[in-house]
Amino acid sequence: MKWQRGSGVRRKGLWFRLRKILLCVLGFYIAIPFLVKLCPGIQAKLIFLNFVRVPYFIDLKKPQDQGLNHTCNYYLQPEEDVTIGVWHTIPAVWWKNAQGKDQMWFEDALASSHPIILYLHGNAGTRGGDHRVELYKVLSSLGYHVVTFDYRGWGDSVGTPSERGMTYDALHVFDWIKARSGDNPVYIWGHSLGTGVATNLVRRLCERETPPDALILESPFTNIREEAKSHPFSVIYRYFPGFDWFFLDPITSSGIKFANDENVKHISCPLLILHAEDDPVVPFQLGRKLYNIAAPSRSFRDFKVQFIPFHSDLGYRHKYIYKSPELPRILREFLGKSEPERQH
Ligand SMILES: *[C@@H]1O[C@H](CO)[C@@H](O)[C@H](O)[C@H]1NC(C)=O
């Protein structure tokens, strides 16, 4: 009898605790949308994720620690109070010549006849992120210079993150490259959130009539609202009443658009889109939708627009397209052919 009563009390206690936890979770679930609506800055932080520094213990001043023995780290100043950290990797064939050389040598190397890729990374992490470093290695082994940087507020770059600021930093680095690169082709490569920066930049360059030689978008979305809606983070709120008002309007009211779908209509240069079918972060359909908007656009009338899907069996997901053994051929065919089609 005693034992039975004890167990009943325990069971009751457990049920009580469980109910408390459930109520708590429900409370948070309902409170979070209101919190986000009241502090739109939260959404901006979640989009930029610049405070997430992974891997944490890397010294961005020492790219050689990441196996980049032909990369120079330097700093540029796009605006007063803004400093950005840059990595410049030269084509791998010169790795021996690069040993012990300083920034001036690397800058001069931009003028020697090799094409240059300006790489615009996505949110979270730094220019030293693993999958980014692996891509620099692939591109450099194919004979490209790779110039990449951390936007203001990322890595060791100083400033406050914003879409305008990111785009401005990219424009500054582009102009800096152009001032040193002579007649060498300059390509813009954006990944994930970096595709938003890339199309902002290239739209601006086209409006200014200094387009790049090609634009490559890896795992792009159509615009930040559609991306935020399909991001795994929002899955648990997808059917929450007023989802758009709670979660998407604060993004728009913070001035964040990353409107790839709008920008491509104002871009005139060869465009290559790469997307893995099993991308869990930026759904494959968004990349395909962007292609379907760009391809018939009048702005691309004289230029090639190509979409390359990667089958889900390959497992490239959101950031492993660099592993594709097909990538060198894809780039050679696309960039090789992009030259004669250019208008002069
Ligand atoms: C330096 O980097 C190049 C290009 O990635 C590589 O081929 C070479 O083996 C590296 N050398 C050393 C000593 O690590």
From TrEMBL:
Organism of this sequence: Castor canadensis (American beaver)
Record protein name field: Lysophosphatidylserine lipase ABHD12 isoform X2
Highest taxon, organism lineage: Eukaryota
Gene label: Abhd12
